[in-house]
Amino acid sequence: MKQHRLIQWLLLVIIFISAGCNGQNRSDKPDKEGTRADHSKLVIPFLLDNDLSPVYNSPSSITRAIIEDRTGMIWFATFEGIIKYDGSSFTNVTKGISTSRFFSVIEDSKGQLWFGSIGSGVFRYDGSAFQNFTTTDGLINDEIVCIYEDKIGNIWFGANGGVSMYDGKSFRNFIMDGDTIIEDRSGKTITAFQRPVNEVNSIVEDKAGKLWFGTRGNTFIYDGKTFNRVIQMGRPFINIRSIIQDKRGLIWLGGNDGLWRYDGITFNNITKNFVGYIYEGKNGNIWTSSESTNGWALSCYDFMSLDNEHRVTEIKTGEGMFFGISDDSDGNIWSGTLDGIYRYDGNTFDDFKR
Q1: Which of 336, 325, 329, 267 is nearest to 301 (CA)?
Q2: Which residues, other chains included, contact 248 with Cβ-Cβ below 8 Å and sequence gap of 6+?
Q3: Which runs of consecutive H residues, i.e. helices, occur in 2-151?
Q4: Which residue in 26, 99, 114, 268 is deepest, having the highest Cβ count within 10 Å?
Q5: How many whole angstroms separate alpha carbon 275 and alpha carbon 284?
Q6: Going by C-beta distance under 8 Å and a sequence separation of 6 or more, which residues neighbour residue 194?
């Protein structure tokens, strides 16, 4: 490692010396257009500690969601657009397409990517072209917070005010109405956004085929006919930010009341700290972003201890907040923050935020 870093520093020294010499040799010579060339603003790309590849255009704003697609590309839903990482450089694929903030990204079973925005609806991307869906096309509204594909291929969009379901041809809309959600067949859309109470934050389908919806208000289970509130000890789960189903079929919920696990019969409280995001890694570990005594924490629950003491390690603390979490095919854990992203290889963090 020390030898590796020495090589990096030598490369940087060579670049600086070359830049300085070139600048001195050319500073008094006009360029082709007849004006003097300015070589004083040479940009030296930042070199990662564990990678000699230069990093260009990495996210520098709130990063809400992260996925790796089937080809190994990493996708980030950020407030500056949808950014793709190919292993060496970053590309903002929505630059010139939309100036909206992006909250969500998924890859569907057909290999198409879906991007949810705040203000411009949702975009479907096939790798070469975008198709934009908005309220004009039947979407419930243009603020899309989360996206989920169910087992039969329907795409669900969690929005402000309710949910839209897309079957590949048309939309079905479900509107939040007090303590329930009802289907609306009139074609009504919601243009007056009512954040944050009516925001649908997370959607997941359980092993029985029922859909769970976490909102800033109640949490609901949909059996295909009706939406029922999720109740624990006589109290509804309020302000659930993240719901997942793990490989064993257990449901995890995170929000105001902490982190909970449901085995189909009983809800078990894991921590009472506010939890904003939950992710199951490929090895079965459960990752969360949550409040802690040291500020905000990116934490890992060892899957070997999940049935007993729930052994947890705070991997990184002190950030303003952690958002989306995902792992890649190399075993790295990626996490979004208020101003960019981290990559964790199990020992050290690569900071792409600088």
Answers
A1: 325
A2: none
A3: 2-26
A4: 114
A5: 19
A6: 160, 161
**CATH tag, 62-351:** 2.130.10.10
Q: Check if the beta carbon of residue 280 is closer than 8 Å to that of residue 286.
A: yes
The phi and psi torsions of 9 (rounded to 5 degrees) equal -65, -40
**Rounded-to-5 percentages of helix, strand, coil across the chain:** 10, 45, 45
Helix (H) or strand (E) holding 106: strand 101-107
Average pLDDT score over residue span 267-294: 94
How is residue 280 written in tokens?
Answer: 């199951």
Residue 186: per-residue pLDDT: 86
Q: Judge if pTM exceeds 0.85.
A: no
For residue 87, the number of C-alpha atoms closer than 13 Å in the C-beta half-sphere is: 7
Say which residue the tokens 């289970």 belong to: 221
In this structure, what token pair is assigned to residue 269?
A: 């409280």
Two tokens, residue 129:
């072209």
**DSSP helix/strand/coil, 18:** helix
Angle at 50 between CA 344 and CA 127, to 5 degrees: 70
pLDDT at 103 over 90: yes
* CA–CA distances in Å: residue 318 to residues 279, 315, 321: 20, 11, 8
- pLDDT tens profile 304-335: 777 776 789 999 997 788 999 999 999 999 99
Concatenated DSSP letters of 188-230:
----S--TTTTBEEEEEE-TTS-EEEEESS-EEEE-SS-EEE-
Give the number of residues written for the chain. Answer: 354
When pLDDT is cut at 50, 70 and 90, the band that residue 233 belongs to is confident
Q: Residue 163: which of 185, 187, 139, 186 has the closest Cα?
A: 139
> What is the rounded CA–CA span in Å between residue 203 and residue 305?
26
Residue 273 CA to residue 64 CA, distance in Å, equals 20
Tokens of 350: 């690569």
